[in-house]
Amino acid sequence: MAPQRTGGRGVSAPLEIAVALGARRYPIRIGAGLLDQPASWRDAIGGPQALVVSNAAVAPHYLPRVCAALRDVACATVILPDGEAHKTLDSAVRVFDALAAMPANRDATVIALGGGVIGDIAGFAAACWMRGIACVQVPTTLLAMVDSSVGGKTGVNLPQGKNLIGAFHQPRAVVIDTDTLATLPARELRAGFAEVVKYGAIGDATFFAWLEAHAEALLARDAALLAQAIATSCRHKAAIVARDETEQGERALLNFGHTFGHALETCAGYGTLRHGEAVAIGMCLAARLSAALGRAPAADAERLAALLRRFGLPTEPPAGIAADALLSTMRIDKKNRAGRLRLILWRGVGRAEIADGVDAAAVRDVLG
Ligand code: NAD
Ligand code: GLY
Known about the structure:
Blueprint: E1 4-5, E2 12-13, E3 15-21, E4 24-31, E5 49-55, H1 59-69, E6 74-80, H2 89-101, E7 109-114, H3 116-128, E8 134-139, H4 142-148, E9 153-158, E10 161-168, E11 173-177, H5 186-203, H6 205-219, H7 223-243, H8 258-268, H9 275-292, H10 298-310, H11 323-330, E12 342-348, E13 351-356, H12 360-367
Parallel strand pairs: 4-11, 5-6, 5-7, 7-8, 8-11
Antiparallel strand pairs: 1-2, 3-4, 9-10, 12-13
The protein binds nicotinamide-adenine-dinucleotide and glycine (GLY).
């Protein structure tokens, strides 16, 4: 399952997972050293122009290698400020300004080089520029590799809530160089495991047990295990997106813990909690709520919290965030219908479900 190393400068033949959307499809290519192997992804940039969008934390490590691979393309760059607090319309405008300065035509490609923040902004800018140009996602965080780079959700935050402005815009390709995880700070690696655990929690009890068996080795960045965790996560995401591209149903399950998590991120102040940390807490709250509503065993909620703790993730909301503020922020979540709370709850490890009209008083109780 892990990509095969072929020797040389850490370069390996990529593993390819297809995201099939009816007649359309695009590849997720996963391998160690892919950025040094442009032949394995250069085909995704079709036109003569590209804009690489990155930030000051990522660009010094990886931008020169991406630009070197694009020697035959008119390649511009834009470096955005780092962090969730900058996932804003202002940052998208900076990308539009860079596209205008090129000037970029409809056959230009936007390349998102960074974590989920860069991927979401760059993807959104690509969706809007001239009503939509190609985007290639080059994720450099674990979280972006296993979740945000795949599936075409793009967007920016408002002070009122996360991801309230956005578009579905599928990438032309996702290029995952697992070697980029070597420079990822430990807190960001831990945050990524929240979304990995999510796939086990919502639909794959066997994967959940595999994560229980390997948590410490994964945290220690065992390369083969990490590649396996990334590939399994991408396969799950690709399968769900293929069945429900625009979240008419099943795709909402990927938001297990996210309504709580997004409210926590908004109320704590963007960037205070990492997205993965907020999702970890949110999944625990959703599991506890499911138990309180008699839908799931309380023991499974504790099993989930125990695994997340082993990945160094928080499982309780931070002190100082008012439960009422969280609840009112949860009311402007995109999943709600007719003013009623719509949450992803579960029956236990491996079995998530959509719950409509969830009792606000029960939600308020788990918020403390
Ligand atoms: P992030 O993009 O802020 O990256 C985390 C930190 O790591 C940043 O400081 C970044 O500069 C740094 N970094 C990234 N790669 C690095 C590397 N290889 N070496 C050193 N530093 C590196 O956060 P994230 O956790 O990747 O993404 C979170 C965002 O993704 C949130 O905005 C969330 O809403 C979004 N998201 C979107 C989707 C989707 O489907 N579109 C899914 C999940 C999450
Ligand atoms: N991260 C949730 C989704 O892509 O649907």
